[in-house]
Design a protein that fits this description.
This protein is mainly α. 60% of the residues lie in helices and 4% in strands. The structure holds arginine (ARG). The site of arginine (ARG) has 9 residues, from helix 7. Its EC number is 4.3.2.1. This is Argininosuccinate lyase.
Length: 475
Amino acid sequence: RKDQGWSALFSEPMSELVQRYTASVGFDQRLWRADIRGSLAHARMLGRQGLISAQDVADIERGLADIATEIEAGRFEWKLILEDVHLNIEAALTQRVGDAGKRLHTGRSRNDQVATDIRLWLRDEIDGLASLLAAMQLALLRVAERSVDVILPGFTHMQVAQPVSFAHHLLAYVEMFARDAERLADLRKRVNRLPLGAAALAGTSYALDRASVAAELGFDALCENSLDAVSDRDFAIEFTAFGSLVMVHVSRLAEEIVLWMSQNFAFINLSDRYCTGSSIMPQKRNPDVAELARGKSGRVVGHLMGLITLMKGQPLAYNKDNQEDKEPLFDTVDTVRDTLRIMAEMVGGAIDPATGDVDPKNPGLTVQPEAMRSAALKGYATATDLADHLVKHGVPFRDAHEVVAHGVKLAMERGLDLAELPLADLKALHPQVGDDVLSVLTLEGSLSARQVVGGTAPVRVREQIARHQARLAGA
Ligand code: ARG
């Protein structure tokens, strides 16, 4: 068993099946950069503390640099027998530099090593995701900027409710993604703590300088309890919870895009590059990207369930169960990253990195204001405005509500919108109906009346856009 990095205690070789079952190298290789960074910081600290010689440190640095080059070039041979990324790299190091390689693991265990690697890796991915969340918000803002005066029906219960600005509708998603970004920044603080020094579970008798390792690796703090440091994966659970919420927000947006693309709405259009055809129906252009984004939310929510269940019932401290943390976590990062990238581009267009401008060949989704407008004119979306008009003329709201119901009934019987009823008929509804009632019943009148903070009046919507733009420019 010496080739596996353990003691001479074992007399029987591991079966092929057990090897395959227990090995993680097939998927944890992607931690190699973090593993090497962590090993370098650990080795340098061992050198500073006089626990290994300066020559050992130099040998380790040289060996690990070589290994990094090989892995990068795809020439490194990963061995299943060596179980995971950590043992593979350590064995390759010893093969190259001899005793110095064997000294690297002084005061360290794979338990604190793997926890460190995941946190380092995840921290860098978090920073990439933070930029993508900003890109997603900017994409929505680009469409919002040109859609303040585009009016569509707002729905409750999927029934026409009140008219809203399309920009206002998109800004609702900006708020959601802004909160996701806040959550991400907050959980990053808890990811960015250093486990190294916890060793297997109890800490170590070597005089390690944990703070200097943390500083070299850019960790904000140390994990303060060795048992906790090696055993909890709450930071990964928290991250998948964040990922689940992002995907739920994306999924709702994707669902709306799918609906809006349908001929029965025809509110928007997407570039061909985000659609696919049908092998049987020649007329089809299907919004596959949006549908997949909606569908992929399921796997991320599944990963959250997987990880949280993995943790439950594990006694302290490290258990091999934790090796199962990686695939869900990796797939969550990959899925959220790819989904945000593609959705930002599909909505807001592709940005030319040289100029920062939108590529005219890939401008993002196109808005069809006329279709939105005619949909907003169906379904008596301004009925509330008529009631509000009466209230402003002194009628109690509940009475006004009743009067308007009669008005809607009348309009329905005649197949007209409220605003299309003759003024005389409107005035006949109630003595307090004023001459200015028709302007109140237009879509524009309805929007511009909603000037409350957070409302859909164009002046408020323009303020929201400016506020988000300033926030994102500052970030
Ligand atoms: N591959 C293992 C994991 O991902 C590394 C830690 C293994 N530690 C141990 N004592 N077997 O969790």
